[in-house]
Specification:
It is built from 5 helices and 14 strands. By secondary structure, it is an alpha+beta fold. Helix 1 packs across helix 2. The longest helix has 20 residues. The N terminus is likely disordered.
Amino acid sequence: MDVSPDFDVQLGRDGVALTVRDRELLAAIDEAGSLNAAADSLGRSYAHAQRRVVELEDAFGSLVDRSRGGGGGGGSELTDRARELLATFDRVRAEFAGVAEADETVVSGRVTERDGELATVETAAGRIRAVTPPDCTEVVVTIRADAVTLNRPADAPEPGGTSARNRFEGEVAGVERGETLARVTVAVDPDLDLTALVTVESVERLELAPGTGVVATFKATATRAVARAEC
């Protein structure tokens, strides 16, 4: 499956995320009829592929039936659960691709510090780390909805404890559900509402509803700033 570098679709459960690479592995098993042949076709080690299947099965349930065999040797085939999971993944990715680029938060600010391509931008809502052009101080920061991760306050990583260096606390202001994805608006400051794009499963697991307290985090490398027109 071709994957745009702008998108990083995942399906999570029990701390394990099924990613594009995992989808490729399961699809290869389905096509090749064995885990060994699938790993070889993808240029991956059999041992690593086997460990990954076990990790996925611990979280999502039985995915690969290894009982099929015979005189020509054993093989592997996907379970109905695996096929349902792949179908869900593809639906999420299709919906995600259709709405992710349209959902973003835009805020103006002033660059106060620089570290190569990354800069600290002072905004009305607080400081934001972002990839920033070198030739301007007054900038507009764009935060893509798919780059924002939501956690309940008790489960949120501590500041500095994750690569997502931008961290804002707030309350859910609204939840707009689709078939598999939901747009969640988070009021983090009177001057800033963040939009996050998450799965409906995450909305239910985190019990997200208007008034729910959350911590929104996003990586500096997924956040872009451009020069304001008056610069």
